[in-house]
Amino acid sequence: xxxxxxxxxxxxxxxxxxxxxxxxxxxxxxxxxxxxxxxxxxxxxxxxxxxxxxxxxxxxxxxxxxxxxxxxxxxxxxxxxxxxxxxxxxxxxxxxxxxxxxxxxxxxxxxxxxxxxxxxxxxxxxxxxxxxxxxxxxxxxxxxxxxxxxxxxxxxxxxxxxxxxxxxxxxxxxxxxxxxxxxxxxxxxxxxxxxxxxxxxxxxxxxxxxxxxxxxxxxxxxxxxxxxxxxxxxxxxxxxxxxxxxxxxxxxxxxxxxxxxxxxxxxxxxxxxxxxxxxxxxxxxxxxxxxxxxxxxxxxxxxxxxxxxxxxxxxxxxxxxxxxxxxxxxxxxxxxxxxxxxxxxxxxxxxxxxxxxxxxxxxxxxxxxxxxxxxxxxxxxxxxxxxxxxxxxxxxxxxxxxxxxxxxxxxxxxxxxxxxxxxxxxxxxxxxxxxxxxxxxxxxxxxxxxxxxxxxxxxxxxxxxxxxxxxxxxxxxxxxxxxxxxxxxxxxxxxxxxxxxxxxxxxxxxxxxxxxxxxxxxxxxxxxxxxxxxxxxxxxxxxxxxxxxxxxxxxxxxxxxxxxx
Length: 565
Description:
Layout: H1 4-19, H2 24-36, H3 39-64, H4 86-89, H5 91-112, H6 119-135, H7 146-154, H8 158-173, E1 195-200, E2 204-209, E3 216-217, E4 221-224, H9 242-248, E5 253-258, H10 270-289, E6 294-299, H11 301-314, E7 322-328, H12 346-359, E8 361-362, H13 364-373, H14 376-389, H15 398-404, E9 409-410, H16 411-423, H17 426-429, E10 432-434, E11 437-439, E12 448-453, H18 461-464, H19 467-470, E13 475-480, E14 499-504, H20 511-516, E15 520-522, H21 526-534, E16 540-541, E17 555-556
Parallel strand pairs: 4-5, 4-6, 6-7, 7-12, 12-13
Antiparallel strand pairs: 1-2, 1-17, 2-5, 3-16, 8-9, 10-11, 13-14, 14-15
Helix pairs in contact: 2-6, 3-5, 5-6, 8-14, 10-11, 10-16, 12-16
């Protein structure tokens, strides 16, 4: 490694990593190189493209001459960009659409068909090329968007003036906004379920909610929210609030409200979040209700933390205070984290760590932008087009308001999370030691209710299903329709709008095989989960106090930490 060639190679790799920490150039270069090494396959692919170009040209000439012609590249029903009739009726815009779709589909197909390239490199190349292709779509520019032109003419230019105002607003905010920052007020329209803060430390507040029934089940429910976002995704508007639904069904509910970490918390680790966060919330609920055990629920990262704590309890001698538990869209096996994996290479994590070490934390806005890149057309370009080209006002959507209300993660904790779980997958392998104990999920025997979401791009359901085979206890698994958020925030409605699959999954690790053996059920999975909880959370009894002398009331819900920016 001391010869000049090796030193030069390492030096150039260091420069590349510094200039291109996400490996965009490397992934594209590897793809091009792989194709150039297969000239015959490349020639065949180019010949197919040339034939399709001639077909599109013939289609365009027919449309120009007024002759009916079916699209060579049909628009997907899920692609809202080209749904306006002008994209079919006007020959010029129709040709523009067809050539764009042809080139886009051919290039994406070619990347996925790259001969001899490993799947991870293919995925990275396809992801970054898609970002460019989506950005240059004709719908994103005024003079190539027929609806934008029509709106400007109809409004006498008002839409353009409003669009410039919206552009200036977003420029000042440093982001393409999806909802106005003042669209809702916490404690009034959102996070409005009545309750009190009964515990506070440097990491979190614990909120206890006021009972809404004459009696409650003896065992409380503790909701462990993810600290990547704020807890009130579980307590949105009254109709969609999971917290309010549980309270109305006779459960005593506690929830974690995590502090928005700053530079002072740079050395706070994952173990601190477990012992002084999740464990503290469980102990608080036990002390106030007098119940020796709780039902614990973990959502996303909160579920990963809860799973880790369950393994920690299983590795010790003391009784586990969690009688049974629930996981929402939770990864415990990170061997295939889905689309987010494009951001999680060793080089990328090195870059993120360097960035965090300078500030002491990871800004949640940076993570939010990364997640938006997973769905750029719906989460970025939709708002560019509607706000700037159409001059439309931002709709007051509660989930988007929550999504934009980002949080910060301590540097030490988040670096551990990325390296030990995402890169190393050490929780599933049983290789993690925390609090002096070696953690093995196979020792966890408490009954589990696990929920995955069919269209989840953050925690793919087939990966969340793997937890069923990692733990030793009985597992009831639910696959809900929709995605990471709306699949969970899924209140019952009449007539039913959603569906779900549910059944025993104890010891299973093959999600598709399990799915083939269960029936689809109309309605909300909440209607399956609540009876499952009620059967395990004990008899109805008198209401517990709101706080105690040991855990006094510190503030009204939603507390103070959730208001931190």
